[in-house]
Amino acid sequence: MLDTPAAAVPTLSLADQARDPDAFAAALGGSFERFGFAIVADHGVPQPLIDHAWAQTEALFALPEDEKRRYHVSGGGGARGYTPFKTEIAKDARHVDLKEFWHVGRELAAGHRYAGEMAPNIWPDRPKGFRDTFIELFAAFDRAGDRLLSAIARHLGLAPDWFDPAVKDGNSVLRLLHYPPIPADAEGVRAGAHEDINLITLLLGAEEAGLELLDRATGQWLAVKPPQGAMVVNVGDMLQRLTNHVLPSTTHRVVNPPPERRGHSRYSMPFFLHPAPDFLIETLPQTITAENPNRYPEPITANGYLHQRLVEIGLIKA
Ligand SMILES: O=C(O)CCC(=O)C(=O)O
Ligand SMILES: [Fe+2]
Question: Name one GO biological process term (predicted).
Answer without folding.
Answer: ethylene biosynthetic process
